[in-house]
Amino acid sequence: MTTTRSDIAPAEGKLGVLIPGLGAVATTFIAGVEAIRRHQAAPIGSLTQMGAIRLGKRTENRNPLIREFVPLAKLDDLVFGGWDIYEGDCYQAAARAEVLEPKLLETVRPALEAILPMPAVFDQNYVKRLHGPNVKHGANKRELAEALREDIRRFQNTSGAARLIMIWCGSTEAFRRPGAVHASLAAFETGLKNNDPDIAPSMIYAYAALQEGVPYANGAPNLTTEIPALLELSRAKGAPVCGKDFKTGQTLMKTILAPGLKARLLGLSGWFSTNILGNRDGEVLDDPESFKTKEESKLSVLEHIFQPERYPELYKNFYHKVRINYYPPRGDNKEGWDNIDIFGWLGYPMQIKIDFLCRDSILAAPIALDLVLFLDLARRCAELRDKGIQEWLSFYFKSPITPPGLYPEHDLFIQLMKLKNTLRHIQGEELITHLGLEYYD
Ligand SMILES: NC(=O)c1ccc[n+]([C@@H]2O[C@H](COP(=O)([O-])OP(=O)(O)OC[C@H]3O[C@@H](n4cnc5c(N)ncnc54)[C@H](O)[C@@H]3O)[C@@H](O)[C@H]2O)c1
Predict the structure, then answer these.
(1) Would you say 83 and 121 are in contact if contact means Cβ atoms under 8 Å apart?
(2) Predicted model pTM
(3) Predicted pLDDT of residue 3
(4) How confident is the model at residue 191 (pLDDT cuts 50, 70, 90)?
(5) DSSP structure string for 235-269
(6) How far, in Å, from the CA of 170 to the mean position of ligand 1?
(7) Which of 88, 189, 233, 344 has the fewest CB atoms found within 10 Å of its own CB?
(8) Does the C-beta of 23 come closer than 6 Å to ligand 1?
(9) 97 lines ligand 1 (CB under 6 A)
(10) Euclidean distance between CA atoms 20 and 201, whole angstroms
(11) Is 364 close to ligand 1, i.e. is its CB under 6 Å away?
(12) Are strands 335-343 and 267-277 parallel, antiparallel or unpaired?
C-alpha cells in the first residue's frame, strides 16, 4: 500500500531542547550528544542515529539510514537549556550523578558548564524527598506558567533556536488521577488562577510549552499531557505530545520477552520483578506516593500484551508484582531481577530468571535524543502535528498515551513496526506488511 507524501518543512536552523529536570538522564543525554558530535563516542541505542529502514520489496535492497530518509535535525544543531531546583550547572549535576566517567566528562566540561538551570516550578507535595533552593515564586500557578513562558521565549532569543522541544526529565511526581480541573482547557486555566492543588508542576511546564507552540515529551510516569485540557491545547496550538515514562531496563526486557511467550502461547502464572537502585531517582521513588506513580506505569504493560480476557486458560489471574528498593551503593547502576513462572504443553511448569545489571541513564539518553528529533519532525509535518498525540512514538514509553477508549500497544516489535510505517507513510513509501506472497508468483 503506497500513501501520498506528507508536506514536511525542512529542519533548518538550530533546535532548542528545553529540559525540566537536569539530573542523571538529562546530563547523560547532553554530555553524550556533545561527545558524539566531537566524534569521541558512538550514539549507541539511538534509532535516529544508527537505525536503517527497509523500503519497498526485499529484492530492491533499499535500506537507507532513518536520518537520511526523513529530514531530522542534525546533532550539531542542538542547543540545550533547562530548569532544576538545584543551582549547580550541568557539569556539576553530571559529576554528582556519577553516570559518566570523569575522563569523558572533562572533555565536554565547558559545554556542560555553560548550561545553568533556570529556577524551577516546584511543589513539595508532588516530590516529597527533594528540597532545593532554585525555585520560582508567584502569587498563583498562572503566574508561574507565565514565568515559564517568558523563560521559553528568552531561551529562544538568546540561543538563536529556530524551533524548540520540551522533554520532561524531572523527578517522578506523586500519583494523581485525572479530575475536574483537568477535564477542559477552560477548567484548567481557572485552576491555574485558583492555585488548584491537582495541577502538578509538570502540567504547568507542559501548559507553558504548548501555549508557546512547543511540543512536549514526558519521560516520567506522572500524569501530565494525557489530560483532556492539555490534549485540547496540543491540538489547538499544533504542538504534538508524547509520553510517558522512558521504556528502559526491566520494562524494556518485559516488552521484549512477553510478546515472545505470548506468540508461542506459553502460559503465565506469575511475574515477580524487583529492582535495587541508588541514584536520586531511586531516592524519590522511595517515597510511596512517587512509587505508586511508577508502579502503575510498570504494571500496565503485561496486561495489555497477554490479553488475559482473550486467553483465560493461559493468562487469567497471573500474579504480577513490581518492587523498587532504594539501595545507595549501586548509584545509577541498577540491578533488575525477574522471576517468571510459565507453563507449557499439558500445563507443565517452567521458570525463567533474568538478572539485568543495567545502567539506567545510559539506556534512557538515546531515547531522549530520538524523542527530541522525532517530535521536531512531527511538528514540521502537518499530518502528524494535527493529531496531537504521537502514538507512533509508543516504542519509547512504558505507558504510551492513546486517545480515550483506545488501548495502548505495548509489544515492542509492533511499536517499532508502527514507528517505521509512520515514517514510510509520511514519505509516501509503500507500507510494509511482511505478507511476501508476491516473491513466489
Ligand atoms: N533512567 C531511566 O532509565 C528512566 C526510565 C524511565 C523514567 N525515568 C524517569 O526520568 C526522570 C529523571 O530520572 P533521573 O535518573 O535523571 O533522576 P534525577 O533525580 O537524577 O533527576 C531529576 C531531576 O529533576 C529535578 N526536578 C524535580 N522536580 C523538578 C521540577 N518541578 N522542575 C525542575 N526540576 C525538577 C531534580 O532536582 C533532579 O535534578 C525520573 O522521573 C525517572 O523516574 C528514568
Answers:
(1) yes
(2) 0.96
(3) 61
(4) very high
(5) HHHT--EEE-SB--HHHHHHHHHHHHHHHTT-EEE
(6) 3
(7) 344
(8) yes
(9) yes
(10) 10
(11) yes
(12) antiparallel
